[in-house]
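Q: I'm writing a short explainer about Putative secreted protein (Por secretion system target) for a general audience and would like to include a description of its predicted shape. Could you first generate the structure from this sequence?
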Amino acid sequence: MRKFYDDLNVHRPATRNWVRKTMGTLGVAALLALPAQVVAQGTAMSWTGASNTNFTYDANWNPAGTPGGNSLTVPVTTSVTSNNYPVISGSENISVYFLENAYNADPTLITPIVVDLASNDVSLSINRGNTSKIDYGMCGLTINKGTVNFGKDGSWRWDENNSLLTVNGGVVNFNGQVVLWNNKTGAALGSGQITINGGTVKFASTLEPIIRFNETREGGQIIIKGDGKVFYRGNWDCQSKIDNGCINGGSEYSILKTYDAATGYTTLSALPSSTFLIKNADRQLLTAGASGTALEMLKTARVTGAKSLVWKYREEGAVTYTSTGVTEATYTPSFANSGVYYVICEAVDANDVVVQSQEVEINVGSTRISVSPYFNQQYIRVNGVLHPKTASFTETPVSYTWKSFNRDTKEYLEFDGAAGQLTVSPSFTSIGTYDVFVEATFNDGRVERSSVMVYYVEAASTTGKDMIWNGLFSTDGFYSGNYAPVSPTFKNKLTINGSGNVPATFTGSVNDTINALTVAAGASMNLSMNSGVVFNVRGEVYVHGTLNITSGIAHFSSNFTRLHSAGSLLNVSGNAIAIVQYMKMGDSDTPASTNGGQLHVTDNARVYNNMVPDRISTKDPSYSMMYVDDNASIYFPGNSTAVVNTRIADAKIACAKAGYVPAVVYDKSIDSTRIYSRLASGFAIENVTSQIVAQNTETEAAYTLTNLESNDIQAIKWYYGTSLNGPWNELAGSDNQLTYKPAVPVGGTVYVVAIGTTSQGVQVMTNNVVALDVIAVTLSPASQQVLVSGTPVDLTYSINGGLTAQDVAWYEKINGEVDYNAPISTTATFTPSTAALGERIYICLANVEINNVVTTVESSEAVVKVVEVITSVEEKASAQLSVYPNPSKGQFFVDGIEGEYSVEVIDMKGAIVYKNHFTNGGAQEVAIDRKGIFTVKVVSGADVKTTRVVVK
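A: Of course. Here's the predicted structure. Afterward I'll give you a sentence or two in plain language.
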């Protein structure tokens, strides 16, 4: 009988007869009779193979159920009741919590697991290990097709004798480390093996990918054959493991290690033993007379068995090679004169066949020409300019120019207007790789080139390059030469560390954007853009060191700004503004963890948080701290006063300066909660807890003033305003009230302060503010209506604060009367009669639940004037009066009046702030320099018309 594991290339001994059984052998009735149970996530399940080889079939597990998300064990063959081993196939992604392939010293007893998914787009994910760190791991696992993801939790072990992982195809992703040797002593010593016949194995972690190689005995090996490849994220120093055979290609292949600095990946691949190849064939950039990096032949059977070999070179343009005289397997290039040289190794192999390796370019620069600043490689975008280059010479050349060599098209070009120019700014119109150099002719007739600079020219839209600060040239954070790789900072990812010139300092008058920012532990960065100039970070911001924002606008516009470490420090000072999407003050959601940095906001700086900062450590006062001092402010989104007050009580928001305490108030105008600093001993309101109150109704709790005597306060009055910046309107009956329950005559968010007068006549405002939510009933239309008799008008009401009325009642009185008539309507919309002539005033009383108490709130007045017909100039003027724009910024027009008329603008205290008489009708401009709500009174003959205007 043919063995199923042979069909699937399962590398098992032929001593056990494994029989393939498929679901096709079961009848439909039998399938329907099998239990279909979903087992809770994390449930321990063991393979039985009771029905077939289908890994996801419920009845093949004990307890029966779906294996997805659970902890799975495949026991040794003696514990499997059938010959059915698990085959993971199909076109659906599979994710399990834990999967262990039980080990036995007898390899014939290890149950194989085969992964043969429909394509590499389908995945098996093994998320984490158990407390034993996945001991023995997947000791009988074979992967033929699909993507297998090993999670980052724990180590993945093939560290016992005969524990094997075989990869014939597909993609294997390791996010943790692999163990190939159990590091024990004595008879228990064991080591496993990973064989890669095809497909790719990728190590995503930057940790050492393979640990505990057994370098003294057979086992503990990675064997790469055919088109199998290994990729490692980073420059993996594994050549010694290749040389001692821990990583090998068996008897038929040799291992080639390459590193691509552009992608940041190391690649291990297998080459046939007949290969004749220089294994480190990257181009070298040298100066004349200097030694380069030794070139080394890949140790294959053809190289080690060669009868003779010699290293040769040719110059650019030549077709024949000249011997270097070096006959060893390694050669260190060195050339006395500048130019481009091509080096090969030539041998006579064991069969007397002459064989040549590939060419290696050695580009040699002149010692008589220098370029500053010099970078051997740099990135630039199409049509971009990185920075100018300047040539210098040890002796005056006869002539010189700047040239580029397109490495893709193999063309040399001279930069326009570059002949005889010491300084040029290289720019390119096409994507590609270019060598840039100075070519000069000297008095001795020699034509020499400077050391070349490689320009990688990218598309203008290229973003996201990882750039590491080295500060080689200056502290200029925008200077590309201060980073590796050398590249424009725009829309790239920056990591600032403590290398070179520090701190990295960003200044300028042009908005700039980067993709992500990390300030490493022990490093510092200064952000000092011009006023109003934006430095935008589109991705995450990690501050492990110190970030100082002293001017301009820092906009951390998406994801998280993380102050993870105890040493994380974000300072915002001067007139700087920081806008933060989401600040995290620690690296854990556990409040008691010992982590979290500090935010210091001083001077006139402002920090706006679009979300409430979280991950606040409560374990120690030095962690997760926000400090606000001077005239600075920190803003939380919406009305976050409750959260802020809790953090102030927990000493997580404080003032660094002695004698000052944080204060908090909700700013309705920007829908944010402001945190600021106030002098603890200053003239203040003792408790500024916000209250909800009806218009013209006293607050339930009183507010008390403090520190009057120490601040020489002799007299006091209380005021209200609709903005934190005023204007402030006096509250009636508040004179010298140390304890006061304000009754505010306007609705919405209203701010209350007290103003004291010292013995010297100096007025002092309290250094904190009370914010009240004042519930008001507003009528529409609110202004006076002049209507012809019989013209209908609808009056409606609205209530602020998101509240609704339980019931309403409308009242009416004739203008001049004292009392309102009994309720004339209880509907939401009221349509008063306009049959009778005259002027009537209407109000609406609404019963609204405020603070769990039903309160009657009285509306503002609506005036309706009914006339028989508009015949007189006076009536027409009154009927057509309009004020625009409304609201305004202090300048508005009064319009709709014919003939002469007078205008008065009256503030909320009854004072006339503007008065004028106009002899011509029509629109007339009015200008006042105060903010607030004002009454506009227009007198035209015997007619008096009033309306209101809001000045912001």
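A: For your explainer, you could say: The first helix runs from residue 4 to 7.
Q: Perfect, that's easy to follow.
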